[in-house]
From TrEMBL:
This is Pyrimidine 5'-nucleotidase. InterPro entries: HAD-like_sf, HAD-SF_hydro_IA, HAD_2, HAD_sf, Pyr-5-nucltdase, SSM1_domain. It comes from Candidatus Methylopumilus universalis.
Length: 208
C-alpha cells in the first residue's frame, strides 16, 4: 500500500515567518481597516478576536460581514511580490525526490499563492495535488471538516497518510483521526500527538 505524504506549505516546505508572513499580516490588517472603515488598531483587535473564535480572519469576515473570500485572498496574498522572498533549496528537492509515495500539499493559504510559492521553490513536479483553503470551502486547518474534505478528495483513510507540519494544532487533529504525524520545529515540547520530530524538512528522509 503506497504511503501518502501530506505537506503543509508555509514554515514547513519553506521559511515564511521571516519575510512573507509579516507582509501578509500587514495586508490583512489594511484590508480589514479599509473594508470596515476602522483604524488599523481596531482592525488588529477584530482580527485577533476572529482568530480566537473562528480560527482565521477570513472565516470571521465571511460570517459577520459577508466578505467575498476570493476578493480577500487576492488582495492579501500578492503572489508575485511574496514569491520574491522564496529561496530555492537543492536539499529540499533531493529530500522530496527520495521520498517514496504520493505527495500532496495541504495549506490554509489560497491556491494562487500556493502555486506561486511551489513554482518559486521549483518543486512542483514532486506533488500530485495542492489542496488550499478553497478546497475545504474556507474551513481552515485544524478544523476536522478540512481534514475530512481532503481525505474524501484523496479517497484515502487516515492511517494511509503522514502529515508533515510545523503547527501543533494541525498535527493534533491529524493524529486524532489516525494519521501519522511529523513535526517540523525547533521546539522541544513533548506531545503524544507527534510521532516524530525533525528540526528541518531536509531531515525527513533520515527519519522516515
Amino acid at each position: 500500500m503506497s504511503k501518502i505524504w501530506i505537506f503543509d506549505l508555509d514554515d514547513t516546505l519553506h521559511d515564511a515567518s521571516s519575510k512573507i508572513f509579516p507582509r501578509i499580516n500587514q495586508s490583512m490588517t489594511a484590508y480589514v481597516s479599509q473594508k470596515l472603515n476602522i483604524s488599523n488598531d481596531a482592525a488588529h483587535e477584530i482580527r485577533d478576536q476572529y482568530w480566537k473564535v473562528y480560527g482565521a480572519t477570513l472565516k470571521g469576515l465571511m460570517e459577520i460581514h459577508g466578505v467575498d473570500p476570493k476578493e480577500f485572498l487576492l488582495k492579501t496574498h500578492d503572489a508575485y511580490e511574496l514569491s520574491k522572498f522564496v529561496k530555492q533549496s537543492h536539499a529540499l528537492k533531493n529530500t522530496l525526490k527520495k521520498l517514496r509515495g504520493k505527495k500532496i500539499v495541504f495549506t490554509n493559504a489560497p491556491l494562487h499563492y500556493a502555486i506561486a510559492i511551489i513554482k518559486s521553490l521549483n518543486i512542483e513536479k514532486y506533488f500530485s495535488a495542492i489542496y488550499s483553503i478553497e478546497s475545504t470551502k474556507y474551513n481552515p486547518k485544524p478544523s476536522l471538516i478540512a481534514f475530512r474534505k481532503i481525505l474524501r478528495h484523496l479517497g484515502k483513510k487516515p492511517y494511509q497518510c503522514t502529515m508533515v507540519e510545523d503547527d501543533l494544532a494541525n498535527l493534533k487533529t491529524a493524529y486524532k483521526i489516525g494519521m501519522k504525524t511529523i513535526l517540523v520545529s525547533r521546539q522541544n515540547k513533548k506531545t503524544i500527538f507527534v510521532n516524530k520530530r525533525i528540526t528541518k524538512i531536509t531531515q525527513l528522509t533520515q527519519s522516515s
